[in-house]
Amino acid sequence: MTRTPDNRAEMTTAAIKSQHIVAVGGGSAGHVLPALPILDELLIRGWRVTYVGTRSGLEQRLTAQLGLTYRGIFSGKLRRYWSWRNFTDLALIAAGFVQALAMLIADRPQVVFSKGGFVSLPIVVAAGLLRIPVIAHESDLTPGLANRLAAPFLRVLCVSFPETRIPLMRGKTLYAGTPIRRQVLQGDAQRALQRWSLDARPLLLVTGGSLGAAPINEAIRAALPQLLSTYQVVHVCGAGKTIGVDQAGYTELEYIDAGWEDLLAAAAIVISRAGANALFELLALAKLNLLIPLSPKASRSDQVMNAEFAEGLGMSAVLAESELDTKRLMAALAALVAQADTYQAALRTWQRPDTVAIVVTEIEALISAD
């Protein structure tokens, strides 16, 4: 259903149809999926949308459903540790910047929207140099490296947590929440029961994110005898991380897009990493959840801080990856179930901003300002 733009960003239909936005983000699904509801709304309003991602194919596959124009550029990872690949990746980043500059000069979009990830930086910097307004969205409580480096070029930064700030940010920082895909909110538990032949036992849904999580995978498999005495388990392991376990009541999947919303609807409990996108989906659906954030040894502690935020609100139970074993996993699940009423009461108080409306209004305001 078409929604009416905010009054301060009203335009005629003809004017809107002439607008072109370049969106960028990638490296993992977490830098793509939250952008989809925003881009879908812009397409509904008649915008022309070009999506820029890596040449790996991940972003192109995830955005294909929208029918927008896709372009892949060279990209290099921004690492915080020593690696010989840092040298080759600098060359890839430079090549990506040249591609980005040529693309933006040729297309001259009215706005650039960045969802972060290492592929976004060349586009954002090129847009800044060409004086094309840039609006970005940051999902995590602590900003990612790409958005931190991009800060001087941003007109607007929309954030998921009210506390989030970026040094050197000269533009506006706006609390907007995290975009939730419409279909995630429209899951059908019965469809999940039929598709995966689920029985009457409570469903424990386990996910380590789009790329999978080896520590969680190993812990779940080790605990299966205990878990299956109470739950049926659907385990999303990550691409290439299934091992062919054939056990009644246990289903392992590499990755799931279509049908994910139905599994969420059917789940009694979700065990998940603590990426912001996954976390806010669980809060929006008021799902009992046990978060196992990515270890600070392998990250900038963003997931730990996300998990602490939800735990502080009484909406999530948290188990540190360093403490993950069968005994502690089963104890954490037992404690979650014992306090289910308390957690569910807290989850019912969660108020989700209308992120799509907020971000789209800011995009259209940038057009009006220019």
Gist of the model:
By secondary structure, the protein is an alpha/beta fold.
Features:
alpha/beta; 370 residues; Rossmann fold; disordered N terminus; 7-stranded parallel sheet; single chain; 2 domains; 15 helices; 39% helix; 6-stranded parallel sheet
What would you note in describing this structure?
This protein is α/β, with parallel strands linked by helices and 370 residues long. Residues 1-14 have low confidence and may be disordered. It contains 15 helices and 13 strands. The two termini are 29 Å apart. Strands 3-2-1-4-5-6-7 form a 7-stranded parallel beta sheet, sandwiched between helices. Helix 2 crosses helix 15, helix 4 packs across helix 5 (120-129) and helix 7 (189-195) packs across helix 10 (260-266). It has helices spanning 13-17, 35-44, 58-63, 85-107, 120-129, 145-150, 189-195, 214-222, 224-227, 260-266, 276-284, 302-312, 326-338, 340-347, 355-369, and strands spanning 20-24, 48-53, 69-72, 111-114, 134-138, 156-159, 172-175, 203-207, 232-236, 250-253, 267-272, 288-291, 317-318. The protein folds into 2 domains: 7-180 and 353-369, Rossmann fold (3-Layer(aba) Sandwich), CATH 3.40.50.2000; 183-347, Glycogen Phosphorylase B (Rossmann fold), CATH 3.40.50.2000.
